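Schema walk-through. Below, the input block comes first and the output block second. Nothing else is stored per chain. Lengths vary across the set, and this one has 410 residues.
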Amino acid sequence: MILNKCSSHFYTKIDLPASKSLSNRWLVLNACMNSIITLKNLSKSADTALMQSLLGKIPQSIPSENPVEIDCKNAGTVLRFLTAYLSVTPGKWIVRGDERLSVRPIAGLVDALKTLGAEISYVNQSERLPLMITGISEFTHSRLKLDMQKSSQFASALMLMISKFPNGLQMDFEGEVISKPYMEMTAKILEQCGVEVSCREKHITLKGTPTYSSEIFMESDWSAASYFYAFVALSQTGTVEIENLCSKSIQGDSILVKWFEKFGVETTFTSAKVIIKKVSKPLLSKLELDFTDYPDLAQTMAVVSATLNIPARLTGLSSLRDKETDRLQALSQELNQIGAKNSIEENSLILYEHGELNFSKPIKTYNDHRMAMAFSIFSGLYDQVEILQPEVVSKSFPDFWTQIDKLNSY
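--- output ---
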């Protein structure tokens, strides 16, 4: 796909997808509660569609000697949440995924589930898919130590199973806790359902059984909003309106509001929508950000900095190596290809000043939706940016390219 340069003077309404992070958590929690909640505005992403499909398949499976195969394809959230869910769903299950998912981190969760009494093992190679699970009715233990250096989804997966812990759940965290806002999101969802949650820096305690008798409407996805914040930042007088984003969101990526102030972008919340407007030139000569808690924003901010030729030090990127691709390596490689000079220092990306960028070669996306969406941002200032595998955006934002087209409206 070849992208033409966007207008610098757009005013348009952007339709974001619902948050897949919220959607997937509510789907699994609802399944544990026997689907008593009405879920509205679920994400239309491929990941959420897969979660719905697999959850629909699981109750129809009659426990037998022949295990039922659960294919999580390339969806890390689906893998981790369903691994926990199947551990307390009577039956025999084989959990597998595609080649990339098969090597993404899962050992920390498997070890935790074993500690809690689950019957789970690796079919072939240790710490790799597929998994064999013999589901039990509930967990027999309630306290464990959990290594959080690879993924916060290990903790969220266990937290969503709170109805399967007759004595509650206590977790002590080892190592650095990455992507903490996603765990906090899970905690706030559980609190909405009446679960007592006590959080400290390295410890969390859950008590009670989740109950809920109303509807839940999914908020739009703040991670998806990041790309349009970027286009506004690159414009001269760009403005976008977005519905269903909350000023007090439980999504950690709402940090965008604060971050983009430095790029001259103003955010105004009304009762019906949020208005994102370019009001001044960028107010910084160098960017320094820590992405330990916000890994899904790293590619966006790297591309914005490179487009505006603002030197940057982006730290806390260790988890990017374990995503749909090694995002840190892919990001560095594609930026260097177009002349946006950079280097990797351990788990940081350093961006340097550069000359004119060159888009004579297409941008590789490595089957990663965020690579495709982030590198499209270059079309805010450059013409004829070519993105390979544009269809990969379906993983989180199927309508992305249609929304990008709106940025040429006045």
